[in-house]
Amino acid sequence: MKRKMEVSELIFKIIAYVLLIIFAVLCIYPLLYALSSMFSSFDAIQAGEVIIWPVEPQIQSFMWVIENSTFWVNYANTLFLTFVGTIWCLFYSILGAYALSKKRLMGRHGWNFFLVFTMWFAAGVVPTYLNYQQTGLIMANLVGQSSMYDIDLKWLIVIAMGMNAQNIILLRNAFEGVPSEIEEAARIDGATELQILTKVFIPMSKATIATVALFFGISRWNGYFWAYRVLGTGQSYSWPVQVYMRDFLERNTLLTTNDRGEDWIVQSVPEATSYLYAMVVFAMVPILVIYPFIQKYFAKGVNMGGVKE
Q1: Of 130, 200, 236, 259, which is the most exposed, with the fewest CB atoms less than 10 Å away?
Q2: 257: which strand partners?
Q3: Residue 179 to residue 182: CA distance in whole angstroms
Q4: Does pTM top 0.90 for this prediction?
Q5: CB-CB neighbours of 212 under 10 Å
């Protein structure tokens, strides 16, 4: 028999659904606006006439991006940083989480404390930047170069910027949730430590690993600040697409100086605004394509990795 819904429960559900709809619209609208601006005329964008649908439709911005070879070089750099960076991060995060999940690890509680400590007290921007510079110098010395700018710094972004304590903790908790009886059975059958990891723990933690891979992938795809600071202007050929778009915006923004000598933004070049929205749309495509295939693991992975019995 169907239970009759109480008034308070009905009110709660109505409010919850309304808030969810509002939140969904707020998330979808920027994408719709970017799409509309990409196909709207330059004058319509500058006049603020674009709201949801394209105004005075055109495909010039779309074709400009398609024919812009520099954009696609930077796009390829972003794909490289995302793909290789995610694999690298998963590789040592899984190894670290597996070791930290073992009670027989000497000093286990101390290592776990130091891992969590980095989440409470971050080093800060300046120490982190200096650390990246020293890491780049070490990498340059390994290949016989005197300066970090003599090597392709994409590899520095991949290697030195992969640590994330939260994701290691998620993986560690997921590994701790694997029944010890299964591991003991594998050892009795003669499995090595590597075989236990690859044949038992990883397959039984697929949801959490997929979730962590999504976290790493999105952070690499959207990575802007450190890529901009480390690569700078000396290695524009290695820029990810986000840094290229920022540089494009700066080069196509008109400035004026006030009485105090400060620069004020007047407006962006009309064509540049439409081109920028077109690049934003292209930059969102991979995440929009990949996410639906990983989404089914998302909630399950977070719950498995975030809650320990």
Answers
A1: 259
A2: 263
A3: 6
A4: no
A5: 27
